[in-house]
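Supplementary Methods, section 5.1.

A reviewer requested that the exact input to the structure prediction be made available. We therefore reproduce it here, unchanged from the version used in the analyses.
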Amino acid sequence: MKSNSRKELKGVTLNERFQVTDDRLGKYDYNGYFGDGKFGIDLKTGEEVFIKTIVFGTQRRRFEGETATQQIERETHAFNHERRLLEVCLKHNLKRIAKLVDVGEVSDDNGDLEYAYMAFEKAESNGHIKNVTEVQDSFGFRLQLMKDVCVGLSQLHQRSIAHQDIKPSNILKTKEKGEDRGKITDLGRASIEGDGIAHDLADWAGQGMYAAPDRLYRVQTSNWNLKRTSSDLYLFGSLMWQYLSESDIPLTREWMKRLTEPLKPGNFSDTYDQVLPHLVIVFEEIFSDAINDCESEIERELITIIKELTNPDPAQRGSKSFSTRIDRHSLHPFISRLDRLLKTHLAQSRTSNA
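The structure derived from this sequence is encoded token-by-token as follows.
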């Protein structure tokens, strides 16, 4: 992708409502699918907001071989796709998804489109490890984040939306009624069943360093749930792995470094069924080592949950307690288990502090 200069927006007021106050992203470390991210003030409410923009009439990032019109088409398609998904979230009051405050366009004095923007509620920070371990009772907050993300993903899945880019930078640390909570943000790589978007053609929509093994080995399937929903389960399990281990290293990098070179994605040319037994062994080794390092029953149960969520076989990924009423890829059983673990931790904390 070519990197070109972008127009400075600091100080600009969008539609007489949102004043851009800072082009620096601070703890957000935004890396969006289109445009740029920045902070601003909602002049209507006085609240701070986070703003995603497409800036027209200036040079921006362009893929190799892409014309200016193709770039505009790609960016506006991605913008409108995310807007539609966010409007679904607003309509159904999905509380664990970052709230869209406003969406709009700004034209110059000649009537030519100058900016398109989406304004979101601003959080305290994103969910990078350093941000979630600096709070009091860090372990309790990480448990809360795991539950909140699980609830948010479940809300999306119930609307046939797969996020496809769950990672620490796409989790928000919020403050609700004085308590630290979490929300999912950035639906720029999301997929909704029956409504195609360019990144749906890719083997994986987010960053490869987080992707599920079946995606990296380019397993082909027409089953939307098997390709999209099960990938979200893996990504969520990887997020839990990072939060539990307090590590910046995603689970994908953990199993990749244990594989021999001929078996790694890009080198292995046979079918996924043939590499799967090797992956199963590597995953068992990872979780066996992790279990041995656990200091509590809660940590051991979290490893069990992560193991179920990240099974290298996408058909086996998910809850072991599925039934005719509960789909294997449903997150409801995991919400219940995480809620129980969180309550256990809080009870233990109250007892130890008594």
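The first helix runs from residue 68 to 91. These observations are discussed further in the main text.
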